[in-house]
Structures are given as C-alpha cells and as structure tokens.
Amino acid sequence: MATFADIATSALINLLSSFLFLLAFSVLRLQPQNARVFYPKWYIKGVRKPSRQTGGHKRLSLSHYVNLDYKAYLRLLSWMWDAILMPEEELIEHAGLDSAVFLRIFLLGLKIFSPMAGLGFLILLPINATDNNLQFKMAKNPNNPSFSDVDKLSISNVQDKSPRLWAHLLMTYIFTIWTCKMLYMEYKAVANMRLHFLATKKRSPDQFTILVRQVPPDPKRSVFTTVEDFFKSNTPDYLLAQIACIQIVYDANRLGKTLDKISRMENWLNYYQNKFDRHPLKRPIKKKGFLGLWGEEVDAINYYKTEIERMKIEAGKEQDEVMSDPKSIMPSAFVSFKSRWSAAVCAQTHQTRNPNKWITEWAPEVRDVYWPSLAIPYLSLTMRNVGMGVALFFLIFFFMIPVLAVQSLANLDGIVKKFTFIKPLVEMPAVKSFLQGFMAGLALRIFVALLPMILMFMSRFEGHLSRSALDRRAATKLYYFMVVNVFFGSVITGSLIEQLWAIINSPSIANILKNLGYLIPMKATFFITFIMVDGWAGVSMEIVRVYALVIYHLKNMFLVKTEKDRDEAMAPGNLLLNENIPRLELYFLLGIVYSVTTPIILPFIMVFFAFGYLAYRNQVINVYDPDYDSGAAFWPHVHGRIIVAMIIEQLTLIGLFTIKGPVGFAQTDVRNKSLSAATFMKEMLSSTPFLVALPIGTMIFHVYCKKRFRAAFQFYPMVEANEKDRQEEKDTPDLDLQKYLDKSYLHPVLKEEQEVQGRFRTVKTLRRRSKDLEEVESGSDDEGGRHLGLEGDLPAAHLEELEAVPYTPPYDSQISKSSELLLDPSHRHPHLKSDGSSSKLYYDSLPTSSSSRSSNQRE
Amino acid sequence: MATFADIATSALINLLSSFLFLLAFSVLRLQPQNARVFYPKWYIKGVRKPSRQTGGHKRLSLSHYVNLDYKAYLRLLSWMWDAILMPEEELIEHAGLDSAVFLRIFLLGLKIFSPMAGLGFLILLPINATDNNLQFKMAKNPNNPSFSDVDKLSISNVQDKSPRLWAHLLMTYIFTIWTCKMLYMEYKAVANMRLHFLATKKRSPDQFTILVRQVPPDPKRSVFTTVEDFFKSNTPDYLLAQIACIQIVYDANRLGKTLDKISRMENWLNYYQNKFDRHPLKRPIKKKGFLGLWGEEVDAINYYKTEIERMKIEAGKEQDEVMSDPKSIMPSAFVSFKSRWSAAVCAQTHQTRNPNKWITEWAPEVRDVYWPSLAIPYLSLTMRNVGMGVALFFLIFFFMIPVLAVQSLANLDGIVKKFTFIKPLVEMPAVKSFLQGFMAGLALRIFVALLPMILMFMSRFEGHLSRSALDRRAATKLYYFMVVNVFFGSVITGSLIEQLWAIINSPSIANILKNLGYLIPMKATFFITFIMVDGWAGVSMEIVRVYALVIYHLKNMFLVKTEKDRDEAMAPGNLLLNENIPRLELYFLLGIVYSVTTPIILPFIMVFFAFGYLAYRNQVINVYDPDYDSGAAFWPHVHGRIIVAMIIEQLTLIGLFTIKGPVGFAQTDVRNKSLSAATFMKEMLSSTPFLVALPIGTMIFHVYCKKRFRAAFQFYPMVEANEKDRQEEKDTPDLDLQKYLDKSYLHPVLKEEQEVQGRFRTVKTLRRRSKDLEEVESGSDDEGGRHLGLEGDLPAAHLEELEAVPYTPPYDSQISKSSELLLDPSHRHPHLKSDGSSSKLYYDSLPTSSSSRSSNQRE
User: Fold this and answer.
1) Of A778, B61, B182, B415, which residue is 20 to 30 A from A379 by alpha carbon distance?
2) Do A725 and B498 touch (CB under 8 A)?
3) pLDDT tens column, A47-100
4) Which residues on neighbouring strands pair with residue A299, listed in sequence order?
5) Residue ranges covered by each domain of chain B
6) What are its GO cellular component terms (chains A, B) (predicted)?
7) In chain B, what residues touch A729 (CB-CB under 8 Å)?
8) How many inter-chain contacts (A to B, CB under 8 Å) are there?
9) Which residue of B has its CA nearest to A724?
C-alpha cells in the first residue's frame, strides 16, 4: 500500500508536470502565431486586431513566427496577475454572468474547504494519528487487508468506542453548519448578482417576448391567424394594444443541415484551392467514394465547385418549402409585447382551461434558443422524459457491461491472432506491456470521452428549448453518472449491478450504510491519486489548449486564405458547463465526504480549486466566447448537488458511527450481517440520534434556500419589469420597439438566408423573395406609423371623433379601432389569404393592405 | 374459521339491521317534531316554514307530536326516490358542487367495481374454486393454519406455478386499465364540472380579490399605507386604476373566543330562564365552581345576566383594541380589483425579488376563509409543516402504544379491585363477558373517535388559509393513518413499529413484498366483516342521525324559546369531508387490492357504495348545509389516493406472483428468507416483467392526469376571467363593484359586531363607532362616484381638459389623476394620520377628504 513517500513523490511529479505545462503555456502564448489560440476573445471583441494583411503564404520574417522581444519573456508569468486582478464587475461585463459565477464555484470550494482543512489538521489528524486501531487489528489478524499511511491518519485508526470519536462527531456538525452557511451566502450572492444582472441588462428581445406553444390546429386558419385571433378575442384591450408582433416558428432543421453541408464543402474547396495555389502545376484530385478513400477520381476543385452550386440550388428550394409549406410551421409562436410588464403577465399566467393548449412561457434569449427542440411535438415530451429517465438509469448502472465486453473482445492476443504480421513487434516486452496497459483502459477511455456527447444527445431528445437548459440537464446526468460510477464505483468492490440487486435484496438498508461507512474511508489514497491525475493534470491540459492549438495551426496551414477565414479558424469554444460543472461537483463530493474521516485529502482538493480558478479565469478572460448567457441559471443545480454530497456524507457517517459507536455504545461487527431488528434498533437509538438530525437539518436547509432564492432563477418579478419599463420610457421615449423586436425570433437559418446569403438562391427564388422584401420594406416605412400610433402622439382630431362615442373611455375605443386595423383578417395581404400560408410575420402582414395592389400589378 | 354459512348469517343480520334502521328513519322522518332534524336544509332555504308560532311549552294536540296521516305511511320509502331522482344539475344548484362531486365518488366505486365483480365471478372464482391447493397443503401439513371458505375462492387455492395463474395476471391488467379509464373519465368530468361551475358561478367577492401576504413591516407607515404605496409605485397605471379596495386583516381571534363564550352563556341563561318559566316557584340556582359541580351557590339567572353584561363590555373593549392596536393588524391585506382578469394577473404573478415578501394568491371564498390562520406568521409555516410531518409519522406508527397502555391500565380486574362494591355485579357471567369485550375496545374506540379532531388540529396548526384546504389536509392524514393502521395493521401480525424496523432491517425489501402478497389474501374474511360492520352499519347510523336527533330534542326541551332559537338548534351539520373522503378511499383500497386475489369481496363493497350513495344523497338534499363550496377542489386528492391504492395492489401482486410464479417459473418458499441476490434476480426476471410494467404505467398515467387536469384545480384561466368580465360588463353595465366588494373580507367577528351586535358595545365605544359609520355611509354616497368615475360615463368636459396634455393618452392621465385622488395619503382621514392606525378600509379612507372637517366640527 501507498506510503507517504509514494504520495509525496506522486504529488511532486504531478506538480512539476503541471508547472511545466504552465511554463509551456506562458511561452507559447507569447508567440505571435498562437495569439488567436490563446487570446481569441480579444479578437472577437475587436480589441486585438490582425497585425498585418497577410493574403497568401509568402515567407515572412522570423519575428512573424517567434516572439523575439526578450522583455516579454521577463514577464513570463504576468498572465496570472492579469487573470486574477480583473475585478468581478469588469469580468461580468467582459465575459457574462455565467462565466463569472462559474468561477465563483472554485472560490466557494476554497471558502468551504480552507477552514475545514485547518480544523482537520489541527484537531482531527492528531487525534487519528495518536491512536493505534490499525496496528492493533494488524496484530490481531495478520491476514487483514494491509493499510496505507493515509489510513493511519484517518478515522480508521481510532479504536472503536473510543471517546476520541466525540471529536469527529462534533466536527461533523461544525463542518455541516459551515458548509450550509457558505452555501447560503453564495446562493444569496448569486441570486442578487442574477437579479442585478437582469435589472441592468440592456434591452434584449427576450425581455419582451413570450413563447406560445400548443396553438390548437385549425384546418381553416393558419397558425398566425389563430394566435392573432386568440389574443384578439381573449385579452383585455389594454394588453392587446401592447402586442408588438407575432413571429411564428418554422421547422428549418433540414435547411440548417444543408447549409452546414455547404459550409463544410466550401472548406474543402478552400483547402484544394490553397493546395493548387501553392503547387500550380498539379491539379488536386479526390476520390468520390467514402471518406475520399476510394471511388472514381475527379478534379477536386471542379467537383466541389459544382457540388456547392448544386447544394445551393437545393438549399434555395428547401428554403422556399420551409416558408411556404404549412407542415414546416410549428404550432408555436413568439409573441412580443411593447412592455416587459405585459410580457411578464402573459408568461406567468395560465391562459385556458386545457393546460395542454396555449402554453405561455418566457422566450429564451435569442442566441440561447435551441431551434431543433421547437420542432418536437409538445405532447411527446412527457414520454420522451420518461424514456430518457429509464435510459439514464440503465446507462448509469449498466455502463460497465459494454465497456467490459469490448475490453474482453479487444484483448491483445485476439488481435495478434488475426493480424499475425504484427506478432514480432508485439512480442517485444516493452511494447507488449505498454500495449496491454493501454488497451486495457482504451475501451473505457473511449466510452468516457463519448459520455458527454451521449448525455447531451439524451438531453436534446428530451426537447428542452434552450441551450442553457440542455447544458444543465446534461450536467445533472453526468453528475449522477459520476457519483455512481466514479465515486461509488471506486468504493464498492464488485460490479455495480450486483450491488444494486444487493441493495434491493440486501440483509438490510442499514447494513448497506454500514458497509459504506466502513469502505469509504479506506479509499482515501485512491482518491488522492485521482485528484492529482484527473484534477491537476486536467486543468493543465485545459490551459495549454493542446487540441485547439493543433487544429488551429492545421486549419491555418490548409484552409485559411483571408483574415475572415482566420477568425473562423479560431474556435474559441466555451465553458462547456455540461462537463465542467459536474466535474467540480464531484470534487465537492470528495471533499465533503472525506472532510471528517480523512481530512488529509482536503489540501489536494484545495490545490485543485486554486489552480483551477487561476486557469479558468485566464481562459474566461482570454479565450472562451460563450454561446449564451443564462444569467447563472445553473446555480440552483450546483447548490442542489452540493446538498446531495452532504447527504451522502452524513449517511456514510451514520453508517460509520453505527459500527464504531462513540463512548459506551454497543459494538457490532460489520460482517455480522444478520442483525436482528431489536439489536439494530438498540444500536440506532444509541448512536444515531446524534447524527440523524444532520440529514434532516440539511434537507430543511435546502428547502429553505429553495423557498428563499429559487424564485430569482424562475420568475421575473413584476415590480422589476415595471421599473425597467418606466426607466426605459424615460431614457428613450422615441424608441421604436416594434421595429426593434421584429424578426428577432426568426429561425437563424432563415435570417441568415434572407440577410446574408442571398447568393444561395436560384434566380427564380431570388426574384420572388426580393420582391417580398421590397414590399415589406416599403410597407413598414409607409404604414408602420399607423399601427404604432398608440405609443406616440395622438392628434387632437382623434379625440374629437371619439367624443361622439358615449360610455366608452376614449383610450379603449382608440384601441379597439386600431386593433381592428391591426388584427382584422380582411386587411391582410391577399397573397396570404389565398394560399392559406401564414408564414408571414405580423409586422409583414400589416402594411400590405395598401401595398398589395401595387405588388399585384407588378406581378 | 368462518364458513360461508357464518358469512351469510352475518350478512343477513347486518342487512336486516340496516333495513330496520332505514325503516326507523322512514317513520321518524314523518313525525312533525323531527322535521328540523331530517329536513333542516329546506328550512334554511326557506322552502319549509315553521307551521305554527309556538311561543312557550303549552300542551299541544297529539298531531303536533305524531304524524296521524296514514297516507304518509303508505309512501314510507318514497324518500328513496326523492333522493335518487333529483337531477345532478339541480343538486349542484341546491347543495353545491362539493356535495355533488362527493356523491360521484360512490358512483365511481360502482362503476369501477361492477364490471370487476362480473369478470371476477365469471372467470376468477371458478378458476380458484376448482383447484385444490389448500386441501393439498392441509393434507401435507395438518398443522398449517386452517383456512376459511372464502380462502377456497381466493387465489390461495390455486396451486403454485399453475397455468391458471395466467388468468389472474391477465385480469390484473384488465382491471388496472379499466380503473385507469374510469379514473380518467371521472377526472375529466369533474374538471369540466368545476370549470363550468366556476364559469357560471354568480358574482362573488373572491373572484375579484387577492390576498397579499408578507407585507414588509414599516415602522413609519401602517400596513394599509404600505400596500397602497406598493401598488401605486409598482404597477402600471392600467392595473392601478383597476384596484377597487384594500382591506387589511385583523387578528380578532381573541374577540372571537369572547363572543363564543357569550353565546354559550346566553344558552345557559335561556336554559335557566325556561326552567324558571316552567316552575315559577323555584328560582334556579347554580354552583360557581368547576362544571357547576361544586362551589358557592348563586341565583343562576342573575349570575348569567351579570356575567353576560360584563363579558359584553369586555368584548366591546377588545373590539376597540383590535381596531386600534397596530399589533392586531396582520401584515396581510385583501386587495380587490374591478375585474377578474386583473385579479388573476396579480394572483398568478410574482411581485418582487424576495419570494418571501409581497406574496400574492387568490383569496379563498369569503365563508371558506379560516380566519385564525391569517394570524400565523408566514415564516413559521415551513417549520410548522415539518413539525407536523414528524408528528404525523409518530402518530401513525406509534398510535397503538398509548392505546395499548391505556387498555392494560383500564382492565376490568384493576377496576374491580378499586371499586369493590361493583364486584357482585361484575361477577355475573353475562355482564362480565360483555364488559370485558366492551372495555377491551373502549380505549381504542375513544382514541379513534378523537382522531379526526387531532388530525384537524394538526392541519390547523399548519396554517392553511381556507376551511376546504384544512379538510383536504386532514383527509390526507386520515387516509394514510387508515392505510397503515387499519389496512396494514390488520394484515400484518405483530405491532406496527416492529414491522417498521423490520422494513428498514428486513431480510430484503422484496421479502416484505412477498410477505404482503402472501398475507393479504388470507385476510379477506376479516375485511368482509369489516365492510359490513363499519361500512353498512356506518351508513345506517348516518341516515338516522341519532346524535343530532337526541341533541335537537334536548335543546328543544331546555333552550328553545323562539323560532329563531329553534332554527339555531337544528345544526344541520355538513358533509365532514375530512372524515368521509378517506373512509371512501379506504373502501377503494380494499376493493382494488382484493379485486384479483379474492373477488368475492367486491359485492360487499358494491352494496356499501350503493347504500351509501342512497343515504348520502338523501342527507345532501335534506340535511347538510355546507360551510363552504370549494368547487370540488378535493378531487385531485381522491384521484391520487386511488392511485396509491392501485400501486399498493400492484406491489402486493408482484410479491404474490414472485411466490406463486405462473407456469414454469421457479418456485420458492416464502419462509426461506435468506434468498441470495442471484436467486432473487432470477426470480424477479422470470415473473416480474409481466407485472412491473403496471406500477410504472400507473405512475405515468397519474402524471399524465395531473398534467392534463390538475390546472383546473389550481388556476383560474385568464381567458375565462376575461370572458366573464366581458359578459358581466354587458349584462350589468351599471354595477357598482366598489360598493359590492367593500368590507367583503372584514373579519366576520368584526362584521357581526358592526352590523348586528351593536348592543354589546359600551356607550362610549358605541358613540364613536356609530359616528364612524355615519361618515362611511355619507362619504360613500357623496363621493363614491368620484373614484368610481372611471367605470361609468365620462363627461365630455373631461375630455376637453385632457386634450391640453400632450403625448400622454387621455386615459392614462385620467387614471393618474384619479389614482392620486385615490391614493395620495394627504387626502386621507386626519384621524388615521394622527394615530397611525391603519385599521380603516380603503373605501373608508377615500371619501373622508371632504367629510373629515364636518366630523371634526361635530366632535
């Protein structure tokens, strides 16, 4: 078993290698060619600009590749200060709240574990070390499993029934209370940060927009008309007048895929073009078959050019289909309001009797919307969730079965038998031992690497509407996977599925707890190694960005022609919350579970958190470009998982104390599995009352926190909405919200299509669409003022008119008049009426009442 | 063990006695003196009227006491038709939706169990009866517990591993699907009834009113002002103008108790007065001490007269305190709006950042409000709930301990030893056996009778705001109590607490299931008896109203002087949903659990449901006067409990099939408790896949129902609110909603005080209060129109004025003007400003701006 010397050596090696990685990073980041790998965020923000216009691949001076300024090397580690010194507010401004709060998780780890480590080293370690339980056991039964030096410092070394155990019991309470206090303060701080963030967030369409789902199908009317009519007939005039626009949802997933394909092909075209430019004599060729490995040989450049042309035509057709085919219109709509308050009213209330119709909720941030989910039928969501729940259960508990199966299939001997020619090579002892070691873990490593993808796929299948929700769901799945497979999987001997049956069928639930209480402290050495190898090394790898570095330079070599290409090649990536949050939570679990039994593990975890904080702060500042900003919506998740960790710790300790029982309590052998109910009760009653309050108290604490802070992550308070509306009205009285909100929630593929990639379209489509666009534009200019009139000035003549209408307040009648104008189908574009397609925007459909004639004439 | 003859005899006796009870009822109900006991509902509705003005106790003709009309006796059982023939719509109109839906539970029972009984008798009974497992076992081991005739018809009589078991397996699926179908249809029907009920319900203050809780304390401002300012500064003008009135909540619990005391004393005064009237020579005396058993003797009439006078003065003082002491003002307020839509917006949305401040929810129906709960600090609710959860756990599992303790203390021998004089009486064999039998169950009977009160007290302690919620919570508690103590308590041998430990520590969870699966079918005979004794007899007792009959005649004899007194003596009672619903649910549990194993139990349950339906329909029509109508809010509760019953059944069957295992499956002895995990797995995998889908499917069904229908019981849809508002506007355009809503949510004690029992007050208070009332009245007449002006006609002059204000829509400015008028504190009553008491109604505070001067002058 591992001695202290072993662990110290291992720690030294790991620290040194981490330091070398940091040094490598410090040098690499100074090289000009790497700037886009290590500082992409600044390029995106436009602070760093390309130094030179490098058109082709001319040979440049050495300084283009290597930083020759010796001064820079003197400040080799300055990036650390740069990373740490940026104030949190600036960080939020720079990288978003998600990133800032993600970094706070590291700090929370330090805050929780530093005093624990202090108390543990001052009080618990001496108490454990000066006892001699293990030596005693060793002497009594030499066949006992040997123990490591770490075990000597753990609670295992304290004799059963020893009064020393009171110290551990007391510490459990102190640690639990301390953790709760820190969690509470953090939850409060994050909730306030989120509310402040939302309150000061600048205007964005999601603040005004709700998503209406489950619009009931109506064969006679389009989705757009249905939504329009619904609000018209079921909303008080006040709210009706607040509606700014209705945007329907297209299922443009296929079009999206086609466009992706085109962009991949354009990459290849670039590659071959570059190749040809460099060697103008040799025209590049490619094979048409699978992966370019076989098949007919063709001229690559011509092939891709024609293919791209063909695909673009196809994309144009598909787009037309999307816009015109009623089947590609989902029974959902984004409805935008002219005030946040009105949107909040509609988002938080239930509209109709049938809770599966007309479901309203806040629209996610525009870039946060996960569009493919919008195409999933709402009623299949329950079944999908149930299905994925079952699948997750099997994945977690049966994960090891395929891994082991593949492992046994892919053993070295089997491979050698098939490919006899590699036999001599494999027979070499050094190669053989390496290969055997490598192959053994290979299958597991591949499966684990695939895991986040599998879990993300499962979460996608569940149909969450936003990327942030997907990340959170995938993170939850990964956390429970790791708790079972990494934590319990390492602690428990035998396969997990055996243990699961043992739990159902076991001698007793209490005995399971006891077993865990007995086994967990024994695994401390293993987890110390795990923290160093997985945690410390993982952070080093992260900061050097090996993968990104290689890919960037490859792309740079083969694909990049213009600065724009280079920008695209940067691939700054993002925080990968779905992977990183559960990983951090696992370290919380380890720290909390071992805090009382084996506090020597804590410094290793603290090093991980400190090092991780430094590394990820640098990455957040210089590298990552988040896809979205959910405003730390993941915090309740983090909080909840740490609570789970605490409960696991407390149950373990209940088990442990039932075995070891503090002063004067009955002692029982853990291997005596057939405890009678009476003995068990006596035991429970004699030791657990001291501990059983802990999980109950923790649960109450959790419920309290949920009641106290959860709302900040679920609702947008009416008061805040109203305040922000008033503030905006004061600051920008002339704001044209309707224009601002219009098309904000159009499927990005269609938007792109319309705005940028007009060149994709066939001539015929092009002609038709441009005419549509013209109409839209002219219409919005001419008549936009008419339906926006309610917001601005109201001419006195209007009022005189209204005096004639008795008993109705002028504002109301004004609303009803203009809302008729807004909503009466007879005013709509004849084109829309005739073909029944409602794929027009609200905004589009309005002004055409007058311009429709002109467009007809043009046709 | 019970033979068929035993059961038949028992059934006959029970049926006969029930029939006798019915006959007694049929005769008793015809007697004129009993009319107020059996037809109070009609007196309350004013359909039946007192026949004669009977002032005193003059001797009247025989016909006053006995119905001499022989024709009435010919139609002795006509009440049955009357009860059954009233159509459901009329019933809802007559007795409320709660009662109508309560009766549907009986029908649901019949609907579920009739086809089950049919199939069970046609298919399962012959299959069970023609096998010979029990005889076989008997032969093999004569020491086996003997079996009853009922067991011969149960699944126990089918040999293990017999292919006959496939029939049971199939039936389980058919029964489950049938039950789900019925539950679904019923949930749908009830949800629709509720929605229809709410939609057609006539105008009531709760439709317009929300309850605001957790108004943050402000030492400088009163609660009223705080609420007022909150809405003024945080609500868009549109919604602000919709506020009709703000009513603050007083803690008048003490005053309520004093008033109760006074009314009890008045009863006693009446009693002695009547006594004196009948025997004018003997002045009645009473002893002042405990329960009137000892102490100084005084003249009873004078004593109560002076006491009542004293108490009334006290009540007057208390009332003044309540109205003026800021401490008796709770940090809550009822805020009424002028439209249902606006109320729905405020009730369904979250107002501020802090979820524990400014909590808004729908106000319960006025008569449904449980006022004492409003005085409970909101933040203590969580702790109260946790505490009551723990208390309920102990009550359920340790309930038998005090019962057994009391039982052992109060045994006959001990009593005889103390009171030797009763020894000769007790020694008589007949008396002794009766007494021993009676005493044995006495403690249990007393505890069980107290149970609903204990559970209701616990629910009250949890602080629910409405009586309906209290009833539902108490019902939930009683159901789980009965499931554990009545159902499992009867099935499992040994004390419950032992079993609980056995579950935690047991050989395996699976073995518990097996034990249950083995034990439950054996108890069928017991439950058949239980259904007859508890169910059938219970219903007979209910219809005769023995207790009410006795109390009414006692009151009539001693207390009643006027017709009003007689009305009060009727005490129609209500449905006691908190007791009756869990009782019905228990019968569902029995029926569902035994439907497959022992279908012979089903007819007994069907008789109960049919008989109960008849009896309770009569009671609902003729007797009960519900305290509130929650609109069948208890349905999700009933649905959920039946689902629980189904899950219990399915788990039992899984256990049973694991023992008996259909064709070809491995057979295991239930007494072999140390099954290895592997054997268990093999077993589970070989038999459970056929059944394990059932509980999973049932849970999915439950979640689906919840998603589909639950909303109808939780939210008031915006569309409905808006429709109803529009309808009302059309129907009654001149409605003065402000007047209608004003004071609707004043504490009933204070209302009573103000409106009826002015005589209680001291002269001083009376003068002050009457002046206040004058002000209120004059104010509302003079100036009510001013702040209501927004709703009605708006003179043209107003509009001209408004044209001068540019850029703000006229309606807005009108609102802000009038809302200033409404809400500016400077306009409020000087009295309120000076003493800081905010105990005035919103409505009161408004008109006083002009009338305050006049009131000051009068002072």
Assistant:
1) B182
2) no
3) 776 654 444 444 556 666 677 677 777 777 778 888 888 888 888 888 889 999
4) A285
5) 4-46+64-200+524-664+686-706, 205-364
6) plasma membrane
7) none
8) 176
9) B234
